[in-house]
Amino acid sequence: MMNITGEISSGCEKMATEARCRPQEAPSGVACCENPEEVLLLCGHPVCKSCRKQSGKGSYQCAVCGGVSNTEDVDVRCSTAVRGKHGGAARQSPQAEQNSAAGCGLQCSRHGDDSAKFFCLEDKRFLCDACEDSKEHGGHKHFLIHEAALDLKRVLEVLQEDLGCKLETLQDNKDACVHALEHIMLQAKDSEDNIKEEFAKLHQFLRDEEASRIAALREEEEQKRQVMKDKIEKMSEEILSLSSSIRDIEEEMSAEDAVPLQNLVAAGRAQCLWQHPEGVGPGELVNVAKHLGNLKFRIWEKMQDMVQYTPVILDPNTADARLYITADLTGVKISTEADRQPPDNPERYDSFACVLGSQGLESGTHSWTVEVEANTSWEVGVSAGAGRRKGEAIWTGVWSVEFWDGEYYGRSPGQEEKTLLRVAATLRRIRVRLDWDGGELAFSDPVSGAHLWTVTHTFTEMLFPFFYNGCDTHPLNVLPVRH
Fold first, then answer.
1. Can you give the pTM of this predicted structure?
2. 184 three-state secondary structure
3. Dist. CA 338–CA 343, nearest whole Å
4. In the chain, which residues have pLDDT < 70?
């Protein structure tokens, strides 16, 4: 099709140029002179400005086909070669069209000569007079070559415009993907840094715990070593004393004279006073079980004092571009980074400063507490998973409690007006409790225990914890719980 269009366009420009250079004969004595300044009538045939003016005001009869055109409806165009400079196309008289076609140099698809005058729309082939009358092309739509060229040019103009729009869309999508690629790399780097930081804390905790337990082991070792050393030293002294006594007795017994009575009495008294020394007593060995028993479990128990469990983790990929999610994904605040612009992915809010929890809820009972403190504009609740994220209609799937302009309101889908809530004291925290199976969503003040609002609804789709922060001075924080 493109090659045919090119051939038709070339031939059309050639014969249109030749036709413009020849004067045309007009019926009823109306002549059309050669004039570079032409106008294109509604019937598609050109006429010079001077001839049109001579015809009188209001209308003009075409010298080629006899059609009447109103003067104010005439499309004025500059007369260059087929007005190619401005995208126009002149129509010629049938005789001029045939003369032009005969000299355009296009070959008949069957006979191979340069006599092609027509174009078969069904077969996309150039035809001469003989071919046009043949049965082979009977019932087919035939057009003069220059008319077919004009029609195809119009088709190509529409195609060109459509392709231009697609090219622009493709370029925009490519730019968006390049931006997303950069964001992915940034996300991965930040996540890696945070993982390393968290593990560094765990490693430090384990190193500290290891050092503490080894120190306790060595302290017990030192204490019990000292006890054993004292016993050994004492028994060594006693061994020396007894050995000396034994030698003295042996010397007395080997003497020729009688043993003095007093020596025997003293030896018997010493034997009576001596006590059997203690060996290794109970509990004097290292308590290995205390140091090694359930070691990992006891370390894990102690580790729970330094780690926290948060029932709701925020999803940064849903956060409006104005929001900043803390590194632990439990807090949201207004961003202070002017150049921060995340990708506009389908999950992301783009009109309100909202963010969702990362885990969808479609069964069971769930509860979480949000610290609002001095925040002056917030909203907390749940949003339907299929709810809208773009534009102004995001609230159609949201159940929530809102604080705005000093008042508390309850919101439910389908309500024309929000429900004004009577709250005795300013809320510092708000607790959300969702019983998905029971169809109940309750809001309360965990500090005072006061009930705020309860919604009953038969939930049929996945729900996500929902947060809106319109205050640029105070964040919203999901509080950890003991797990």
1. 0.61
2. helix
3. 15
4. 1-47, 49-60, 64-117, 121-127, 129-148, 255-277, 338, 483
pLDDT of residue 336: 78
Q: Please say whether the beta carbons of 440 and 456 come within 8 A.
A: yes
Helices 295-303, 145-254: crossing angle, 10 deg rounding: 120
CA distance 294 to 289: 9
Q: Which residues pair with 143 in a beta bridge?
A: 119
pLDDT for 414: 80
pLDDT tens column, 73-118: 454 333 333 333 333 333 444 444 444 444 455 666 555 556 665 7
The secondary structure element, H or E, covering residue 165 is: helix 145-254
Task: Return the pLDDT at 112.
Answer: 58
Cβ–Cβ < 8 Å for 449, 431: no
For the chain, how big is the Rg over CA atoms in Å?
Answer: 51
List, in order, residues 6 or more apart from 92 with CB less than 8 Å away. Answer: 15, 16, 19, 45, 46, 64, 100, 146
Residue 75 CB partners (closer than 8 Å, separation 6+): 39, 40, 42
Q: What is the pLDDT of residue 49?
A: 61
What phi and psi values does residue 476 have, to the nearest 5 degrees?
Answer: -110, 135
Please check whether residue 393 is in contact with residue 350, taking contact to mean a CB–CB distance below 8 angstroms.
Answer: no
How high is the mean pLDDT of the chain?
A: 78
E-state strands within 345-475: 354-356, 365-371, 378-384, 398-404, 407-411, 419-421, 429-435, 440-444, 451-456, 463-469
Contacts of 8 (CB under 8 A, 6+ apart): 106, 119, 145, 146, 148, 149, 152
pLDDT, residue 167, reads: 93
Residues 317/329, Cβ–Cβ less than 8 Å:
no
CB atoms within 10 A of CB 319: 23
Terminal alpha carbon distance of the chain: 71
b/e map 346-374, b = 16+ CB within 10 Å: eebbeebbbbbbeeebeeeebebbbbbee
Residues 6+ apart with CB under 8 A from 269: none
SS3 at position 208: helix
217-250 pLDDT, tens digit per residue, is 999 999 999 999 988 888 888 889 888 888 877 7
Structural tokens at position 409: 């309101």
pLDDT at res. 57? 53
pLDDT for 105 equals 53
Q: What is the DSSP string of 59-110?
A: EEE-TTT--EEEGGG-EE---SGGGTTTT------HHHHHHHHHTS-PPPTT
